[in-house]
Write a structure and sequence with these properties.
alpha+beta; 36% strand; 4 helices; 31% helix; 380 residues
Length: 380
């Protein structure tokens, strides 16, 4: 009988050999990391509000320009001055007409006084003739003549009073015309209704200003500009007013922090895109008309994460392949924020768990593998 010979270290050598025969699979460890859910948008920088400054008086020539493109202006500031000569001449003519109308009114009032006196005398003559006629001392014709004279005097008094009324009305018309000229004179100073920065200037000294043509000036209200970008109908659902955005303009290296000002309530039925307006700070170096891109921060967290390649998603949810003692076990997980090549794992595994890094590897639930850490695999 031959007894089995035990050689120290043989069992461990056989175990190592068995492990070498197993497929080597790269694995990763679930760890916490900073994750940011973001939406990338690109578009053009535009003014939030552009104010067109037009002359409020037509037909006057531009006499003086007070600003140029790029100048900052306050609300009510004078941007240009229009010629006042023709308006001053019209006002002088109207003031002369008013003086004439006042003289006419004074004359009419004097006529009223005279007509009133004539009427009083005619009434006295009529009353005397009427008393004499009733007593038989006067003739009927005399009574009729004095009555007619009183009626004529009454009519003349009424006409004089109407002349005064007409003259006073003429004076009021002239006053209104003078007030209109004064208003036009005050409007010869072309003023901006808002504060901001002058972005365009069409005014030229000597040119005739017209409210129906191109605006004399364009002012960007409060120097506020925004990035107007189009997003897909999927991404636009994630964006909300007030969310932070990091903006980069073409040719610029600095990051500009802005905020979502407006999210379009509609999506174009043809392109399936909706617009998002991201407001930039007023002191940013960006200019209207530039092309830019923005990363809108939807959410951020410091959470447990796995490489995106380690998670499989389907109709039944998401899963990963956890490795325990060299054995693969498929487990369901709930995912959250996706940031670059990583995805948040809300539940299903714990920190420190090891999973198959590539979910598409040819391993099944229950397979034995030789796990190779991702760092070691990368160094090799």
């Amino acid at each position: 009988m031959v007894s089995a010979l035990f050689v120290p270290g043989l069992a461990s050598a056989q175990g190592g050999a068995d492990r070498k025969n197993l497929p080597s699979i790269v694995v990763s460890e679930a760890t916490k990391r900073d994750l940011v859910d973001r939406v990338v948008a690109t578009g053009t920088l535009k003014p939030v509000d552009e104010i067109y400054v037009q002359p409020l008086v037509d037909g006057l020539s531009v006499d003086k320009l007070n600003v140029d493109i790029g100048d900052k202006v306050e609300a009510g500031a004078s941007l240009a001055e229009l010629s006042k000569d023709s308006l001053i001449l019209q006002k002088s003519q109207l003031q002369a007409n008013r003086a004439k109308a006042e003289a006419s009114v004074a004359q009419s009032k004097a006529q009223v006084i005279e007509a009133q006196a004539n009427l009083d005398d005619a009434v006295r003559q009529r009353d005397r003739a009427d008393r004499l006629g009733k007593s038989g001392s006067g003739s009927v014709s005399q009574v009729e003549q004095t009555a007619a004279a009183a009626d004529v005097a009454q009519a003349r008094l009424q006409a004089s009073r109407q002349a005064v009324t007409v003259g006073e009305a003429d004076t009021k018309v002239v006053d209104a015309q003078i007030q209109d000229i004064d208003l036009k004179l005050s409007r010869t100073s072309v003023k901006t209704p808002v504060a901001g920065i002058v972005s365009a200037k069409n005014a030229r000294v000597g040119a005739i200003a017209s409210g129906s043509g191109n605006p004399l000036f364009t002012v960007i209200k409060d120097n506020a500009i925004e990035l107007v970008a189009d997003l897909s109908e999927t991404d636009i659902q994630k964006v909300q007013v007030g969310q932070r955005a990091i903006i980069t303009v073409a040719g610029g290296r600095n990051k500009i922090e802005g905020k979502v000002r407006l999210v379009s309530p509609t999506v174009d039925a043809t392109t399936r895109l909706g617009s998002v307006h991201i407001l930039l700070p007023t002191d940013s170096p960006a200019r209207a008309g530039m092309y830019g891109s923005a990363e809108v921060v939807i959410a951020s967290a410091n959470a447990l994460a796995l490489p995106l390649s380690a998670v499989t998603s389907g109709r039944d949810g998401s899963s990963t392949r956890r490795v325990e003692d060299g054995v693969v076990k498929q487990v369901a997980v709930e995912i959250g924020i996706q940031d670059g090549g990583f995805v948040e794992i809300k539940n299903g595994i714990s920190a420190g768990d090891v999973v198959v890094e590539k979910a598409g590897a040819f391993v099944r639930d229950g397979d034995k593998i030789n796990p190779v850490p991702a760092d070691a695999a990368a160094s090799n």
